[in-house]
Design goal:
34% helix; five-stranded mixed beta sheet; globular; alpha/beta; 228 residues
């Protein structure tokens, strides 16, 4: 099976192609350009480099969230359009699960964190068991302090929230907090593709974003209304 996977949930835009279980190509950029400007040229370049056409793709996968509201819409819209036009299935993968796949087999709990502002992170917890990544805490938006107080034992933190909240986490957890290096904290489409291998596939119309929280503008409007 040939899988084309993309992730546009954060600052990094990334695309990858998995043939069978082999990652044959992956491109990532972190620039000031919007994902709507970069993702399709990236896909075209990737297909050329691995000598495949878009019709050779059997499954289209993408990060379904959480993440940037605009970025998720761009990624999901791209996958929907490609899959619908070719009559191929799709697979949505949690951005947090894909980040957890960036960490190779370990006995530690893996805690992906994406900065959600206001002292919160988007988070889930994962653990490797017999070569399979298992979710032990479903995706949620949670206060950093609350997350740290709920953990015990050595935990690996991965994701863009590491850069923002590292000092606070280390203060609360001490030596039990381990942090993935910067290159492993970025979203990777190869990890999205790897996660999609073991998931159910669906049709393009069924693919939706998982935001976990309302947009900031909507939250601020509701807060303003509640003060009246």
């Amino acid at each position: 099976m040939n899988i084309l996977a993309i992730d546009t949930s954060a600052l990094t835009a990334t695309a990858a192609i998995l043939c069978g279980e082999t990652l044959v190509g992956e491109i990532s950029t972190t620039t000031s350009l919007t994902h709507s400007q970069t993702i399709m040229p990236m896909i075209d370049e990737l297909l050329k480099k691995v000598s495949l056409s878009i019709r050779d793709i059997d499954l289209f996968a993408c990060s379904e969230g959480p993440g940037s509201f605009t970025g998720l819409r761009i990624g999901i819209g791209t996958v929907k359009g490609l899959a619908y036009g070719l009559g191929k299935p799709v697979c949505g993968v949690s951005t947090l699960e894909a980040l957890a796949h960036n960490i190779a087999f370990t006995d530690c709990v893996i805690s992906p964190i994406m900065d959600a502002r206001r002292g919160q992170v988007y988070n889930a917890l994962y653990r490797w068991s017999d070569g399979v990544l298992q979710c032990i805490e479903e995706p949620r938006a949670i206060e950093v302090a609350e997350l740290c107080h709920s953990l015990y034992g050595r935990t690996i933190f991965v994701g863009d929230g590491v850069k923002v909240h590292r000092e606070k986490i280390k203060e609360l957890m001490g030596d039990n907090a381990l942090f993935a290096p910067p290159q492993h904290c970025l979203q990777r489409a190869g990890s999205v593709a790897a996660a999609a291998l073991n998931k159910e596939h669906t049709d393009a119309a069924s693919l939706t974003a998982v935001y976990l929280r309302k947009p900031q503008a909507e939250r601020e409007r509701e807060e303003a209304m509640s003060r009246r």
